[in-house]
Write a structure and sequence with these properties.
Structural class: alpha+beta
Strand order of the largest sheet: 10-9-8-7-11-12-13-6-14
Helix content: 25-40%
Largest sheet: 9 strands, antiparallel
Number of strands: 16
Order of helices and strands: HEHEHHEHHEHHEHEEEEEHEEEHEHEE
Radius of gyration: 22 Å
Number of helices: 12
Strand content: 25-35%
Shape: globular
Oligomer: single chain
Length: 416
Amino acid sequence: MDAIEERKVYRLVLTGGPCGGKTTGQSRLCTFFENLGWKVFRVPETATILLSGGIKFADLVAEEVYKFQENLLRTMIQIENTYFELGRTSNKNCLIICDRGFMDASAYISKEKWDRMMRSNNWNPVELRDNRYNQIIHMVSAANGAEQFYATEEHSCRSEGVTLARELDYKAASAWIGHPYFDVIDNSTDFENKVNRMIECVCQKLGIDIGDRLSITSRKVKFLVSGPMPLDTAFPAFQDFEVVHHYLQCAGPRVQARLRKRGQNGRWSYIHTIRRPQQHGQSIEVRTQLSHRDYLNMLTQQDDAHFTIYKKRRCFLVNNQYFQMDIYKEPSHPRCKGLILLETYTSLTGDKLKAILPKFLNIVKEVTGQPDYSMFNLSLREDWNNTKKFCYSLHDQDDADVKTNGHSQKMINGKA
C-alpha cells in the first residue's frame, strides 16, 4: 500500500448546546492534531455566515423561514464539499472539523417541514447523517450540569435563559440520534477534562494511540436486558436500524476483522473494522467507511467459522446519555435467541452508573467484558464447549491470554 492510500481524511462534526465548549474544543482539537502532523481544516458554521448579513428571523414569515433553512442546507453542503475535496487532495492525514452539520438544522424546523424539504430536494437523511460524516461529538451545554459556569457568562442569564439553553441542547443532540459514531460529552468532569475527553474520543475512533497524553476517563459498558421489549411509546425519541455483521478471515491470530452493514429504509452504510491489541491497556479499533462495491468485494473474505449476525439496533438519549440497544434476530445460533444488549460510554461506576440507566428497561445485570456476551463468541458456529476458537479474558491482567485457533492471543479490556 503506498503513502497516498494510507492517508486518512476524517470528517468530524462538533456540535452542542449553548456554552458547551464547542469553540474552545475545536481550537484545542485543531492544535492537538496539528502537533501530530495532521492537516486540519475547520469548516465555519453556515448559519453564522448567513445571519451575519443582517437576516433577522423575527422579520421573516413562515415560508421565508422555510426557504432560508433550505438554502442554508444547500450552502452548507457546498461549503463542506469544498473542504472535503481539499482533504482528499492533501498530502497529509487530514482532520476536517465541521462547526455543526447537516442534521443540526432539523432541530429548528417541524418534522413535517423537514420531511417536505428532504423530499423536494431529493435528500436522504441516512446519506446525509450516517455516510457524510465519520463521527459526531455533542458538547453538552453548561446549562445542563454546570449551571454555575453558564450563569457567570458576561451576558445576563436569567433562569428562563438556562431553561431555554437546556431545551436547545437536547434538540441539538436529538438531531443526531442514530449516527453510528455519535458521542455525547457531558459535564461530569471539570472543563479541562471535558475537552480532554472529547479529544480522546476522536483519537479512539481513529485508532490513534494517545498514550498518557490524555487521561482515560470513559469506557464502554454493556448490560443484559430481559424481554419483552417495552412499547415504543415508553422510549424517548429513537432511531431504529437494521444491522448485519460478517467476520472476516485474518492473516494472524492477534487480529479480528469484520464488516458491518447498517441502514434504514433500504439505504445502507458500510464499515470495515480491524481490532488489534495495543499498548497502554487500550484495545484500538480502526474503522474505515466503505463503498457498496468495496463491501461486496470484502465479503468474499468472510470467515465460515462464524454465523452472520443480524440485529435491530435502537439508538436513543436518556438524561444526556447516549444508548445503543441491540436486539439479536434470526437466523443465528440458538444462544442468541431473544438476546438484548444495551451499551453506552461513561466514566461513571457503581450507583452513579445505575442511576443513568433507562428505567423503562428490565436490566438484568452488567456484562461488560464478559466473554459470553462478546459478539465474536456469540457468532461462532461451533458449540462453545467443543471449540478452540472461543475467546477468554482474564480481566485482572492488562495482558490477558486468549485461546484462539490454538494460538495465544492477547486481549485487552475483555474484548478480542
